[in-house]
Structures are given as C-alpha cells and as structure tokens.
Design goal:
The protein has eight helices and seven strands; from the N terminus they run βαβαβαβαβαβαααβ. It is of the alpha/beta class. It has one domain: 3-Layer(aba) Sandwich (Rossmann fold). The chain has a seven-stranded parallel β-sheet, sandwiched between helices. Strand 4, helix 4 and strand 5 form a beta-alpha-beta unit. Helix 4 packs parallel to helix 5. The longest helix has 27 residues. It binds nicotinamide-adenine-dinucleotide. The site of nicotinamide-adenine-dinucleotide has 29 residues, from helix 1 and helix 6. Belongs to the short-chain dehydrogenases/reductases (SDR) family. It comes from Qipengyuania spongiae. InterPro entries: NAD(P)-bd_dom_sf (IPR036291), Sc_DH/Rdtase_CS (IPR020904), SDR_fam (IPR002347). Pfam families: adh_short_C2 (PF13561). This is SDR family oxidoreductase.
Length: 258
C-alpha cells in the first residue's frame, strides 16, 4: 500500500538532510529503500529509522562514494541482492562549491563537479541496465534553483547544478528513444533548512536565525523550505502519478524563480 508500493529505490546522500527525508518518505509510501552515503553510519541510521517505522525488510544501507565508479557497481549489485532489483534511483548527494570566479581553486572546482555531476552520470549509467529489468522506472536527479539562476558568488555550484539539469534531459530522451519506460527528471530546490546551509550560515558570521529570516524574506512564500517539501516532489516523480513526465524540471522554490 502507498503511492510507491512495490518500488525498489536507491537514494544517494541519504544519511541526513534531504536524502534522509526522501528515503523515509519513499519507504513510508511503500517502497523498499537502499540508503547510501559516504557516511556509512549515517546511512545505517536512516535505514534503521525506516525499519522502525515501516517494518523489517524495508530499509537497507551501504557506503557509497558517488564519485567512485567501482563503488557504484557494488551498489547496483547490492540493490539486486537486497531489494531484488531497482526501479527508482534518486541522485541526491551533492555539495556546495566554495568560491567566486576569482577565489575558487581548481581542486575545489573539480571536487564539486565530481560529487555533483560525475555522481549523476555514473548513477544513471550503472543503474539503467538493472532498471530496464524493473520497468516502469524513474530517475530523480537533485539539481538546485542555482542550476537555473546564476549568482556571482558560486560559479562552481551554478555550473555543476546546470549540468545535472541538462544531463537529466539527455538521459530522459535516450531512454524514451530506446523504448524503455525509464523516466528521468530534475528537482530544483531553493534554500532548505538542512546541514548544507550551516556552512553558508557560518560564512556570514551571523546567527542562524538571522540568516534564515533574511533568506525567507527573499522567497515569495516567506519561508525557507523544509526537507519534506522536497521529499514530496521526489515522491511524486518516483511514483506512477508522474508517468507522462520525463525530461522535465520540478522547481520547489517557494516562488523565487517565478
Ligand atoms: P547535506 O549536506 O545535508 O547532505 C548531503 C549528503 O551527501 C551528506 O549526507 C553527505 O555525507 C553526502 N555526500 C557528500 N559527498 C558525498 C559523496 N562523495 N558520496 C556520497 N555521499 C556524499 O545536504 P542537503 O541539503 O541534504 O542536500 C542534498 C542535495 O540537495 C544536494 O545535491 C544539494 O546540492 C541539493 N540542494 C540542497 C539545497 C538546500 O538548501 N539544502 C538547495 C538546493 C539543492
């Protein structure tokens, strides 16, 4: 029972923040979920929370560094073993990329692209063969509103998230052209209160509540987002309710891009 009953889902970056909320929401709505993260203990904690809420055999976890090709192959094997296949892939893991065009060094730029973009490329490439056996399938790639709207302060984040946006469309068209019912869409959140914002808050030198209020004032709906605002969008894209939607972008941004 549930909106994604019987779906077999792998979520990256599921130890905390948006990924943990997505994994728990998918499980609550009937999916079996393999929670992955660089932080193995955090992923295990999310899987334990899922099992406590949804029952034994609903949540699994493993370490997955999304920049590592071999680790992706192991994760797909684990999906086959623990879930019995794969029908939903959520490429959620991502990081901020510090520095403007003068101050961002090449190593930071490259690491940002590895975690934000290589991850999605590898995830799609490694998952699709197994997803073909479990159609209909859905790939959900977490980009950002920053992949659609530029800022002078974060060229690395802007460019990497724009790459995720366009990569999603290309994968969507490819799968459709092959005649596979594997959809691929991108999600574009604005500021959401998760640990990723803490680094940004720290840089401002202000209290978190002050920064949050300032961010909220920029958003037409007058608040920053909650993790479940994004998880609800991911749930929709993962479910068959969105079965005519592929190659599209879902903006979850309180109206900031309107
Ligand atoms: P977060 O920092 O709270 O969580 C990110 C998770 O990714 C962490 O658990 C971390 O361990 C994991 N991770 C980092 N590098 C990894 C790697 N190499 N391999 C595997 N896992 C790795 O961030 P969040 O806010 O939950 O962000 C999730 C996604 O949403 C990211 O792609 C982020 O860019 C995007 N996003 C977030 C916001 C926001 O305001 N929170 C806005 C727009 C987009």
């Amino acid at each position: 029972r549930g909106r994604v009953a019987g779906k077999l889902a792998l979520v990256t970056g599921g130890a905390q923040g948006l990924g943990a909320a997505q994994a728990r929401m998918l499980a609550r709505e009937g999916a079996r979920v393999l929670v992955t993260d660089l932080n193995e203990d955090g992923a295990a904690e999310t899987a334990r929370a899922i099992e406590a809420e949804c029952g034994a055999g609903t949540g699994f976890s493993m370490k997955l560094d999304v920049t590592d090709e071999t680790a992706w192959e192991d994760a797909i094997d684990a999906a086959r073993e623990h879930l019995g296949g794969l029908s939903v892939l959520v490429n959620n893991a991502g990081i901020g990329v510090k520095g403007n065009i003068e101050t961002c060094d090449l190593a930071t730029w490259r690491h940002g692209f590895a975690v934000n973009v290589d991850s999605v490329f590898l995830g799609c490439q490694k998952a699709i063969p197994l997803m073909r056996d479990n159609q209909p399938g859905s790939i959900v790639n977490i980009s950002s509103i920053a992949g659609l709207i530029a800022s002078d302060t974060m060229p690395g984040y802007n460019a990497s998230k724009a790459a995720v946006w366009m990569l999603s469309k290309s994968v969507a068209l490819y799968c459709a052209k092959q005649g596979w019912n594997i959809r691929c869409n991108s999600v574009h959140p604005t500021f959401i209160d998760t640990p990723i914002l803490d680094g940004m808050v720290k840089n401002t030198g202000y209290e978190k509540s002050v920064v949050m209020e300032k961010l909220a004032r920029q958003i037409p709906l007058k608040r920053v987002g909650e993790a479940d605002d994004i998880a609800n969008g991911v749930l929709y894209l993962a479910s068959d309710e969105s079965k005519f939607m592929t190659g599209a972008e879902l903006k979850l941004d309180g109206g900031i891009s309107a």
